[in-house]
């Protein structure tokens, strides 16, 4: 576990070396190797996991797969890296699982090298837009406050749209982990179906003031920037595996 953060005067912030100053920081990087990380899952109505059978949870709670425990309410985290992927899936099969028809590890090119086009992202079926449509996901490598390990947090579906304003703020930081980002949920509804959406708000005034955490974030970024998010061919569109 990390040390308790000690409040410091603004003048003391200059003593913290966040790493990657100036031109060394090239934004939220993407690269080409594989990464397998635990993830924080936003729980929705109708989820039926064995892990949750004896846990009192509600839609909007978060589940940390690394410790098999719930994370209640909003939480703060340092955003270390961001990776964008795209996936084109087939129709639902047995057990509501979908075959992955195409996968992109950078959100730009399919794994066969072809560029993802605007037509790829157009819905092919009004009743099931995921069938044959390229769907984007943002995968954030974060360090949750009170922990000392990296974990994935995914913005997909309706939550994907909420990531764009957060990305704008994160890309203005150099590096992104100079301050904490608060993650919470908001209500969403589509065709009468209610669900929860992820929200991320960068907090410029909540600066990181722990040198050990700054060092940890830098090392996690170095490891993450040489890896990519991968997916199993038979993974479910609703619950991807990494």
Describe the protein in words:
- By secondary structure, the chain is mainly beta.
- The protein contains two helices and eleven strands.
- The chain has one domain.
- Strands 2, 3, 4, 5, 6, 7, 8, 9 and 10 form a nine-stranded mixed β-sheet that branches.
- The N terminus and C terminus are likely disordered.
Counting helices, strands and paired strands, the structural category is mainly beta
- H/E element sequence: EEEEEEEEHEEHE
Kindly state the number of beta strands: 11
The averaged pLDDT comes out at 78
Shape: globular
Number of domains: 1
The whole-angstrom Rg is: 19 Å
Ends distance: 25 Å
Low-confidence stretches: 1-14, 27-35, 232-242
Indicate the proportion of strand residues. Answer: 25-35%
Oligomer: single chain
Q: How many alpha or pi helices?
A: 2
Portion of residues in helices? 10-25%
In short:
The protein is mostly beta strands. It has helices spanning 158-172, 211-224, and strands at residues 34-35, 39-42, 62-64, 69-71, 75-92, 98-104, 134-144, 151-156, 179-190, 193-207, 228-229.
Keywords:
globular; nine-stranded mixed β-sheet; disordered C terminus; 2 helices; single chain; mainly beta; 34% strand; 242 residues
Secondary structure layout plus pairing:
Blueprint: E1 34-35, E2 39-42, E3 62-64, E4 69-71, E5 75-92, E6 98-104, E7 134-144, E8 151-156, H1 158-172, E9 179-190, E10 193-207, H2 211-224, E11 228-229
Parallel strand pairs: 1-11, 2-8
Antiparallel strand pairs: 2-3, 3-4, 5-6, 5-7, 5-9, 7-8, 9-10
């Amino acid at each position: 576990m990390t040390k308790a953060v000690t409040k410091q005067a603004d003048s003391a912030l200059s003593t913290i070396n966040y790493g990657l100053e100036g031109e060394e920081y090239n934004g939220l990087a993407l690269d080409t190797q594989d990464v397998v990380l635990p993830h924080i899952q936003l729980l929705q109505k109708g989820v039926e996991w064995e892990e949750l059978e004896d846990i009192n949870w509600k839609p909007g709670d978060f589940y940390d797969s690394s410790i098999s425990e719930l994370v209640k309410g909003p939480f703060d985290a340092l955003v270390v890296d961001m990776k964008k992927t795209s996936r084109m899936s087939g129709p639902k099969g047995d057990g509501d699982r979908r075959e992955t028809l195409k996968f992109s590890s950078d959100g730009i090119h399919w794994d066969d090298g072809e560029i993802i086009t605007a037509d790829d992202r157009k819905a092919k079926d009004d009743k099931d837009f995921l069938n044959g449509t390229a769907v984007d996901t943002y995968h954030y490598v974060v360090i949750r406050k009170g922990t000392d390990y990296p974990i994935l947090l995914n913005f997909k579906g309706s939550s994907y749209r909420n990531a764009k304003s957060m990305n704008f703020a994160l890309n203005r930081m150099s590096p992104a982990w100079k301050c904490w980002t608060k993650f919470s949920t908001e209500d969403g509804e589509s065709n009468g179906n209610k669900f929860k959406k992820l929200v991320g708000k960068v907090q410029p005034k909540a600066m990181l003031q722990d040198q050990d955490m700054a060092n940890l974030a830098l090392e996690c970024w170095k490891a993450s920037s040489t890896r990519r998010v991968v997916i199993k061919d038979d993974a479910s569109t609703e619950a991807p595996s990494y």
